[in-house]
């Protein structure tokens, strides 16, 4: 399943696509919420790897407005729960991810993104 924790690390890898290739933009999305037990220690360790502005923009594009514009220095339990929800409980089951730079579309089917490229799209 495409969760936002995964999406926050995906970029377009089409040959010569180096501008505006992150984050990929969701469209035609079927979003499913699957509750899961929160692990705040994991979230705290993972936070340095996040691109916060990309995460916030993506969450908002999917209808979640709970994350603050700027990443907090000190986290409340409520903020950690909101982060857990966005990263771990929001699942994109169907839809597309599109590169803003080159327009390449990566389809998502049954929660699995197809990140494979045609031979002519692969950089060598």
UniProtKB/TrEMBL annotation:
Subunit record text: Interacts with TRM9.
UniProt cross-references to InterPro entries, sorted A to Z: Trm112, Trm112-like
Pfam family, one: Trm112p
Family membership noted in the UniProt record: Belongs to the TRM112 family.
Gene3D superfamilies (UniProt xref): 2.20.25.10
GO annotation terms (biological process): rRNA (guanine-N7)-methylation; tRNA methylation
Species in which this protein is naturally found: Dioszegia hungarica
Protein's recorded name: Multifunctional methyltransferase subunit TRM112
GO molecular function terms listed in the Swiss-Prot or TrEMBL record: protein heterodimerization activity
